[in-house]
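Sanity check

After download, print the first record. It should look like this:
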Amino acid sequence: MLPVNPDRFLADLHQLRSFGAAGVGKGVVRPAYSEADIAARTWLAERIREAGLSVHVDPVGSVFGLADDTSLLMGSHSDSQPEGGWLDGALGVIAALEVARASAEAGGPPVSVVSFQDEEGRFGVTTGSAVWSGNLSLEKADGLTDRDGVSFAEARARMPGRSDAFVDPARFAGFLEMHIEQGPILDRENEAIGVVDAIVGIRDMKVTLVGEQNHAGTTPMRGRRDAFQALSRFNSLIAERFANVVTPATVWTIGHVTLHPNASSIVPGKVTFSMQWRDGDADRLGRMEAIIRGAAEEVAASGGFDLSFGPML
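Expected structure tokens:
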């Protein structure tokens, strides 16, 4: 057993928590490439250096601490969702750092560390690791934009110390990640730890429905092309149609909605919303996509809406 230092581990975990702390009960606000995220990664790089590892910041801003020889890679991410849980990702990064330090101090096997960038989806889905692993080209990633229209290329240019080269995955013997569950199952089962037996696939895209903006006080209900009502119908349709496809472990979420013009006395004429679904079976993910597209097309055709889909990530 490695002689890990729990006090050192907890001190670093709480220090990382301080970057972007949002107050009691509100977690952290540390979106990718924000000031808080960059400050946290700068701090992490220094801790990595102190641990005797070589710091490497790849072209997208993922921070690696590299052992000299072939090594096990451990880590996670340190960016967050808005008011995200302070242990989400951070636990895996600091646990990796502590294991690397403890192993070196005990003369054990070499361990490298990573904090991947934009794993929480400001621009895509697990963007940093997807680019590093070759599942997403850097060119395609650079074209992604956040909800404010900032491109991935613009954002990553803010990251200091970036190299022009990616770390070769072949230098690692394997990858391990510790992660907090973020769900109720372990608590309900009164268990302290679980072992992952599958990694779910994530699909994410934006859907836009355009109807007719009009006066809320004088436009009769019959014949309205209300974008919010279209979204409401779409949500009901997919829930009904997923019933014969999904399992208890399947999840889907409409997490971000932009309604235009978003005024109380105007029938909304346009809605853009995110549609995300997750499952461990690739075939099921594909069937869910067909249902999503079919339901959106049915809503658009029956209500006289223009429909467009953003890229699927």
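If your output differs, re-run the checksum step. Summary of this record's structure: Residues 282-303 form the longest helix (22 residues).
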